[in-house]
Amino acid sequence: MPELIHDEIVVRRPPSPGLAAVLSVLLPGLGQVYSGRLLAGALWFGLTWLSYWAVLIPGFLVHALCIWSAYQSAKRWTYY
């Protein structure tokens, strides 16, 4: 019986910086997760939540930094 060989090429589009930013607007850290940075997404979520809760650092400022970070993460995305 002949062996069947299937060559598969998986093409993955790089993440969209704009979509990463929008996702982080909706939920802090989600843009980082979308870009493949799970730990960074969890850290941004925790930091933003803590900032809104504690009011020591304005939460909206940390949220804005999170959105910027998500945008930059998607821009720097490379294939592995």
Number of domains: 1
Largest pleated sheet: none
Tell me the Rg in angstroms.
17 Å
Order of helices and strands: HHHH
By helix and strand content, what is the structural category?
mainly alpha
SSE blueprint:
Layout: H1 17-26, H2 30-34, H3 38-54, H4 59-75
Helix pairs in contact: 1-4, 3-4
Task: Offer a quick outline of the entry.
With about 80 residues, the protein is mainly alpha-helical. The protein has four helices and no strands.
Describe the structure.
It is a single chain. The chain is mainly α and 80 residues long. It has one domain (17-75). It contains four helices and no strands. The termini are far apart. The relative contact order is 0.22.
For this entry, give a set of tags.
single chain; 80 residues; 61% helix
